[in-house]
Amino acid sequence: MKLHYRSIELLVAACVVVISLASLFVALYQGRVMQRTMEASVMPLIQIGHGNFDAEDDAWQIKIEVTNTGLGPAQVHYLAMRWQGELITDTSDFMAACCVPDSVPEAERLDYMYSLFREGEMALIFDDVQMRFLAPQETVDFISFDQPDAETRPRGHAVWRAVDRARHDISYEVCYCSVFDQCWMSTFPRQSREPVRQCVPPSPEAG
After folding, report:
1. Residues with Cβ < 8 Å from 207, sequence gap 6 or more?
2. Is the pTM of this model over 0.85?
3. Is there a contact between 144 and 124 (Cβ–Cβ < 8 Å)?
């Protein structure tokens, strides 16, 4: 009889251990599911768009917009632009390379750009997004470039038209994180998005 009771006690103890382990597994699984649900409920999604006409102001304007179309806030760590595979580190350098009339000698192209800004033939407006939090559905005009008048500012108008053509050849890379420190790197116009451990800005040396 003692052996019989001993077997029952061992069986009961084993059942208790199994039930405890099952309960622990269920609790851990539910916790993980809840964590993923919370992460999904505040997941950001950064989109980049550009155009050449502002319907609201009924005016020609080149604009690059950064929008958080996701459900939660996004901290943008960096936004990089490339033209012909080269990292754009200075807009004046980029515009001197892409958009100054061919009649201007190469050595004078950058000075030509500076003169256009200095003499008021054109102006760019920047709104930095680096290390900035974007609320859900918030849009930032990263760059705005009003079209100069063709008669009063012909040089600026010509450069504007050249930039309007060149913007289609610009690619974008943006890295951002959620409030849970989940990070992604997105590229446009490829519309790709990959999770990353952290956001490391590209270096000019890397091209």
Report:
1. 85, 86, 87
2. no
3. yes
